[in-house]
Amino acid sequence: MADALCELFRQEGYKVDWVPDGQSALSLLEGGTYDIAVLDVMMPRMNGCLVASNARKEGITTPILMLTAKGELDDKVTGLDSGADDYLTKPFMTKELLARLRALTRRNAGYHEDVLSFGDITLSPSSAELKCRTTGQAVRLSEKEYRILEYMISNSGLILSREQLAVKIWGYENEAEYNNVEVYMSFTRKKLSFVGAGTEIKAVRGMGYELRCKDV
Protein backbone atom coordinates (compact mmCIF):
# COMPACT_ATOMS: atom_id res chain seq x y z
CA MET A 1 0.00 0.00 0.00
CA ALA A 2 2.84 2.39 0.83
CA ASP A 3 4.35 1.88 -2.63
CA ALA A 4 0.97 2.43 -4.30
CA LEU A 5 0.31 5.63 -2.32
CA CYS A 6 3.78 7.02 -3.03
CA GLU A 7 3.24 6.44 -6.73
CA LEU A 8 -0.22 8.04 -6.56
CA PHE A 9 1.15 11.12 -4.81
CA ARG A 10 3.99 11.47 -7.33
CA GLN A 11 1.51 11.26 -10.21
CA GLU A 12 -0.36 14.15 -8.56
CA GLY A 13 2.82 16.25 -8.51
CA TYR A 14 3.91 15.73 -4.92
CA LYS A 15 7.54 15.12 -3.97
CA VAL A 16 7.41 12.16 -1.59
CA ASP A 17 9.64 10.84 1.19
CA TRP A 18 8.67 7.49 2.72
CA VAL A 19 9.93 5.73 5.85
CA PRO A 20 8.87 2.35 7.32
CA ASP A 21 8.47 3.29 11.01
CA GLY A 22 7.31 6.03 13.33
CA GLN A 23 10.68 6.98 14.75
CA SER A 24 12.03 7.64 11.26
CA ALA A 25 8.89 9.62 10.41
CA LEU A 26 9.43 11.88 13.42
CA SER A 27 13.07 12.38 12.43
CA LEU A 28 11.99 13.49 8.95
CA LEU A 29 9.48 15.94 10.40
CA GLU A 30 12.13 17.33 12.73
CA GLY A 31 14.69 17.77 9.98
CA GLY A 32 12.65 18.79 6.95
CA THR A 33 10.01 21.22 5.73
CA TYR A 34 6.92 19.40 4.48
CA ASP A 35 3.54 20.56 3.21
CA ILE A 36 1.84 17.54 4.77
CA ALA A 37 2.52 14.29 6.62
CA VAL A 38 0.46 11.11 6.11
CA LEU A 39 0.82 8.81 9.12
CA ASP A 40 -0.43 5.29 9.76
CA VAL A 41 -1.46 4.68 13.35
CA MET A 42 -0.08 1.13 13.42
CA MET A 43 3.62 1.77 12.72
CA PRO A 44 6.56 -0.06 14.34
CA ARG A 45 8.92 1.62 16.84
CA MET A 46 6.48 4.51 17.38
CA ASN A 47 2.79 4.60 16.45
CA GLY A 48 1.26 7.44 14.45
CA CYS A 49 -0.45 9.04 17.46
CA LEU A 50 2.86 9.29 19.31
CA VAL A 51 4.56 10.71 16.23
CA ALA A 52 1.87 13.39 15.94
CA SER A 53 1.95 14.15 19.68
CA ASN A 54 5.75 14.43 19.81
CA ALA A 55 5.81 16.56 16.66
CA ARG A 56 3.32 19.03 18.15
CA LYS A 57 5.25 19.17 21.44
CA GLU A 58 8.33 20.17 19.43
CA GLY A 59 6.43 22.96 17.72
CA ILE A 60 6.16 21.23 14.34
CA THR A 61 3.05 22.61 12.62
CA THR A 62 3.05 20.43 9.48
CA PRO A 63 -0.55 19.36 8.73
CA ILE A 64 -1.04 15.67 9.58
CA LEU A 65 -3.48 13.23 7.99
CA MET A 66 -3.89 10.05 10.05
CA LEU A 67 -4.45 6.96 7.90
CA THR A 68 -5.58 3.82 9.69
CA ALA A 69 -7.78 0.75 9.73
CA LYS A 70 -9.27 1.80 13.06
CA GLY A 71 -12.69 3.35 12.65
CA GLU A 72 -14.31 3.60 16.08
CA LEU A 73 -15.13 7.10 17.35
CA ASP A 74 -12.76 6.74 20.33
CA ASP A 75 -9.91 5.88 17.93
CA LYS A 76 -10.68 8.98 15.90
CA VAL A 77 -10.72 11.15 19.01
CA THR A 78 -7.35 9.72 20.11
CA GLY A 79 -5.78 10.42 16.72
CA LEU A 80 -7.19 13.92 16.43
CA ASP A 81 -6.41 14.80 20.04
CA SER A 82 -2.80 13.69 19.56
CA GLY A 83 -2.31 16.46 17.00
CA ALA A 84 -3.61 15.11 13.70
CA ASP A 85 -5.60 17.52 11.54
CA ASP A 86 -7.71 14.91 9.77
CA TYR A 87 -8.44 11.19 9.93
CA LEU A 88 -9.17 8.75 7.09
CA THR A 89 -10.19 5.16 7.72
CA LYS A 90 -9.23 2.22 5.51
CA PRO A 91 -10.53 1.15 3.09
CA PHE A 92 -10.81 4.50 1.33
CA MET A 93 -11.21 5.91 -2.15
CA THR A 94 -8.09 7.52 -3.58
CA LYS A 95 -10.24 10.42 -4.81
CA GLU A 96 -11.25 11.20 -1.22
CA LEU A 97 -7.67 10.87 0.03
CA LEU A 98 -6.40 13.34 -2.56
CA ALA A 99 -9.23 15.76 -1.80
CA ARG A 100 -8.33 15.71 1.89
CA LEU A 101 -4.66 16.29 1.08
CA ARG A 102 -5.59 19.31 -1.03
CA ALA A 103 -7.76 20.68 1.77
CA LEU A 104 -4.98 20.31 4.32
CA THR A 105 -2.31 21.90 2.14
CA ARG A 106 -4.53 24.73 0.91
CA ARG A 107 -3.85 26.81 4.00
CA ASN A 108 -0.11 26.74 3.23
CA ALA A 109 -0.60 27.94 -0.34
CA GLY A 110 -0.20 31.62 0.46
CA TYR A 111 -3.70 32.96 0.95
CA HIS A 112 -3.77 36.41 2.53
CA GLU A 113 -7.37 37.08 3.48
CA ASP A 114 -8.17 39.69 6.10
CA VAL A 115 -8.41 38.60 9.72
CA LEU A 116 -11.94 37.47 10.61
CA SER A 117 -13.59 38.66 13.80
CA PHE A 118 -16.71 38.09 15.89
CA GLY A 119 -17.42 39.27 19.41
CA ASP A 120 -14.11 39.27 21.26
CA ILE A 121 -12.28 36.80 19.00
CA THR A 122 -10.18 37.14 15.86
CA LEU A 123 -9.22 34.41 13.40
CA SER A 124 -6.11 34.67 11.23
CA PRO A 125 -6.31 32.79 7.89
CA SER A 126 -2.54 32.88 7.37
CA SER A 127 -1.60 31.29 10.70
CA ALA A 128 -4.90 29.61 11.73
CA GLU A 129 -4.52 31.44 15.04
CA LEU A 130 -7.51 32.08 17.28
CA LYS A 131 -7.05 35.08 19.57
CA CYS A 132 -9.19 36.65 22.28
CA ARG A 133 -8.92 40.43 22.24
CA THR A 134 -10.02 40.69 25.88
CA THR A 135 -7.46 38.30 27.42
CA GLY A 136 -4.74 38.53 24.77
CA GLN A 137 -4.52 34.72 24.75
CA ALA A 138 -4.01 32.94 21.42
CA VAL A 139 -3.91 29.34 20.20
CA ARG A 140 -3.32 27.60 16.88
CA LEU A 141 -6.29 25.72 15.44
CA SER A 142 -6.27 22.46 13.55
CA GLU A 143 -7.44 22.59 9.94
CA LYS A 144 -10.97 21.45 10.78
CA GLU A 145 -11.29 23.68 13.85
CA TYR A 146 -10.24 26.65 11.73
CA ARG A 147 -12.75 25.85 8.98
CA ILE A 148 -15.58 25.44 11.51
CA LEU A 149 -14.93 28.86 13.06
CA GLU A 150 -14.35 30.46 9.66
CA TYR A 151 -17.69 29.14 8.42
CA MET A 152 -19.53 30.13 11.61
CA ILE A 153 -18.05 33.65 11.69
CA SER A 154 -18.92 34.11 8.01
CA ASN A 155 -22.50 33.05 8.84
CA SER A 156 -22.83 34.76 12.21
CA GLY A 157 -26.43 35.23 13.29
CA LEU A 158 -27.48 31.99 11.59
CA ILE A 159 -28.09 28.57 13.10
CA LEU A 160 -26.05 26.04 11.10
CA SER A 161 -27.25 22.46 11.00
CA ARG A 162 -24.95 19.48 11.53
CA GLU A 163 -25.61 18.50 7.92
CA GLN A 164 -24.57 21.93 6.63
CA LEU A 165 -21.35 21.77 8.63
CA ALA A 166 -20.57 18.23 7.48
CA VAL A 167 -21.01 19.15 3.82
CA LYS A 168 -19.08 22.40 4.15
CA ILE A 169 -16.16 21.04 6.18
CA TRP A 170 -15.90 17.50 4.81
CA GLY A 171 -17.24 18.16 1.34
CA TYR A 172 -19.98 15.56 1.12
CA GLU A 173 -22.80 14.04 3.14
CA ASN A 174 -21.92 10.86 4.99
CA GLU A 175 -23.54 9.68 8.23
CA ALA A 176 -20.16 8.59 9.60
CA GLU A 177 -18.87 12.12 9.20
CA TYR A 178 -21.67 13.62 11.30
CA ASN A 179 -19.96 12.18 14.39
CA ASN A 180 -16.88 14.16 13.38
CA VAL A 181 -18.90 17.38 13.54
CA GLU A 182 -19.63 16.72 17.20
CA VAL A 183 -16.00 15.76 17.91
CA TYR A 184 -14.62 18.89 16.27
CA MET A 185 -17.25 21.11 17.88
CA SER A 186 -15.99 19.85 21.24
CA PHE A 187 -12.38 20.57 20.23
CA THR A 188 -13.27 24.05 18.99
CA ARG A 189 -15.19 24.88 22.16
CA LYS A 190 -12.15 23.86 24.20
CA LYS A 191 -9.98 26.23 22.17
CA LEU A 192 -12.44 29.09 22.76
CA SER A 193 -12.40 28.30 26.48
CA PHE A 194 -8.60 28.08 26.50
CA VAL A 195 -8.19 31.64 25.23
CA GLY A 196 -10.85 32.87 27.70
CA ALA A 197 -13.24 34.02 24.96
CA GLY A 198 -16.63 35.51 25.72
CA THR A 199 -17.71 34.02 22.39
CA GLU A 200 -19.13 30.50 22.45
CA ILE A 201 -20.69 27.87 20.21
CA LYS A 202 -24.22 27.11 21.36
CA ALA A 203 -26.13 23.98 20.43
CA VAL A 204 -29.73 24.80 19.46
CA ARG A 205 -31.91 21.76 20.14
CA GLY A 206 -33.17 20.11 16.97
CA MET A 207 -31.60 22.75 14.74
CA GLY A 208 -27.81 22.90 14.96
CA TYR A 209 -25.13 25.30 16.18
CA GLU A 210 -24.84 29.06 16.49
CA LEU A 211 -21.93 31.37 17.33
CA ARG A 212 -22.90 33.74 20.15
CA CYS A 213 -21.49 36.16 22.68
CA LYS A 214 -22.05 34.78 26.20
CA ASP A 215 -23.99 37.84 27.34
CA VAL A 216 -26.53 37.40 24.51
Number of strands: 9
Described by the principal axes of the CA atoms, the overall outline is globular
Largest sheet: 4 strands, antiparallel
The number of distinct helices, counting runs of at least 4 residues, comes to 8
The CATH topology name of the largest domain reads Rossmann fold
Can you describe what's shown?
With 216 residues, this protein is an alpha/beta fold. The chain folds into two domains: 2-106, Response regulator (Rossmann fold, 3-Layer(aba) Sandwich); 116-213, Arc Repressor Mutant, subunit A, CATH 1.10.10. Helix content is 43%, strand content 18%. The protein has helices spanning 2-11, 22-31, 48-57, 73-81, 94-106, 143-154, 162-170, 175-194, and strands at 37-40, 64-68, 86-89, 116-118, 121-124, 129-132, 138-140, 199-204, 208-213. It has a four-stranded antiparallel β-sheet with strand order 4-5-6-7, covered by helices on one side. Strand 8 (199-204) and strand 9 (208-213) form a beta hairpin. Helix 2 (22-31) packs parallel to helix 3 (48-57). The model has no long low-confidence stretch (mean pLDDT 83).
